[in-house]
Amino acid sequence: MSDSTIRAVVMDVEGTxxxxxxxxxxxxxxxxxxLPEYVQTHRAQPEVAEQIDAVRRELGEPDAxxxxxxxxxxxxxxxxQKITSLKALQGMxxxxxxxxxxxxxxxxxxxxxxxRQWKEAGxxxxxxxxxxxxAQKLLFGHSDAGDLTTLFDGHFDTHxxxxxxxxxxxxxxxxxxxxxxxxxxxxxxxxxxxxAASAGMKTLQLVREGTQAGTEHGVVASFGxxxx
Length: 228
Hints:
Elements: E1 8-11, H1 20-42, H2 46-59, H3 66-78, H4 84-99, H5 111-120, E2 124-128, H6 133-141, E3 154-156, H7 166-176, E4 183-187, H8 190-198, E5 202-206, E6 218-220
Parallel strand pairs: 1-2, 1-4, 2-3, 4-5, 5-6
């Protein structure tokens, strides 16, 4: 890798900056536990009412009761569905939890020091995750390393495209007004790295505990091992 060509770093979240168990063992169960009361208590608020109606449209039942909506949302959490209305409500519930100090966003210990170094060195930093932009900002804004949101120049979620399609990474490159070869993409998922490499980006795989190393990309065990 030619260090001098890298002008921006785009990073995945789960399994890359953040232990995937934080999402599955903390965030998802918290949303599942809090959702019934949260929806019932805030059902009249416009942003919540909008998502309740979106669930009804998804069900094809415009007159579905709030209890039916809640039952559906819980089922979607249990089956890990990526449905926009669920993501929106989860984001609201997580925001409430973060603000009340119910938990902090987990980051691997090697992440925050490296992000600060890169920022000081003039690199542009971006997040690209399947989690919503709101969820990303909450995690980094309430992380166990403090509020890191000022380190990032931007955020992307699946609104820009699927993570395993090369065209998505071309769109990101266009959004950043940078050549793909000047962007380093970090992820733990080989298929995402394959797509980014197909678009011309440089790639490195983060191999954390439980991650299977691939053979087509450079491999590092921590942000501290990234040669930038």
